[in-house]
Amino acid sequence: MAGEGSAALTDNVNNRRDILFWIASISGKIERYLNRSFLIQSRTEYFDVTNGLIQYWLEAPPVISITSVNVDSTGLFTGGESELDDSEYYIGSQTDSIVLVSPESWAGKRGLKVVYTGGLCYSAVNSIYAVTPNTTAWTVGNFCIGGTSQAVGIIRAASLTSMTIEVLYGLFEVGETLTEYTGEDKSGATAKTATLDSKTQTSLAESYPDICLGCDMEIRYLAKHRHDYENAGTNKDGTTLRRGASVDRRLPLQPEVIDVIDPYRRIAL
Hints:
By secondary structure, this protein is of the alpha+beta class. Among the domains are: 41-118, no CATH class; 124-206, Beta Barrel (Elongation Factor Tu (Ef-tu), domain 3). It is built from 4 helices and 15 strands. It has helices spanning 13-34, 204-207, 209-224, 255-261; strands spanning 41-49, 55-57, 63-71, 82-83, 89-91, 97-100, 108-118, 126-131, 143-146, 152-158, 162-169, 177-181, 189-201, 231-234, 240-242. The model has no long low-confidence stretch (mean pLDDT 90).
């Protein structure tokens, strides 16, 4: 977030207190609105079994792998459950569900247990790149700027063949030349360059930049109205127009934010 005009936002306790709180709050709010969990990790979910139903939608698509599937008509899963063979289920065609080859012939609460790995990213901002070997490893804390994409990031870890970059903005491109600087504005070139050979792991900021943009837009709105959240406008006489009752405010986020992130909303039947 920029300060006034072209000035950088001052890094102080007050700004950090507001912005870091907003990041956590709005990130969670966007996850709840999109009805999905972002981080790729192992997850365990339980489902009510419906007689004849073969497809169950998971909370953190896309699904990368399924570790195990168990059924228990008691719903307890205390040792009496049955584990399905991996030939008895598969990942759905849209990678957002598990499909049973043969449906269960009974119905019960919490009767299906699925352990799987899924999600959109391993990190919100950190991407890992394989690079052409450098004679000298880059300096952690300096800036990395793409020669073609003009993307900018901060070096968080570096070896001769790999770099972890905290992506600030832009999308780095495979094959482009990366250059190290001490300043974000390309000041302080260090003469260290590398070629981005491949992306080992991409962050949410690179893979799904519109989700990050939506978070940024909502936080900018909160920053602008940090002292008058409840006000919708001002009359000519200086009195404020307050927002209506909660029944009149059905959108959990600003309409423009929803326009940006809505394509990623998970609709589960």
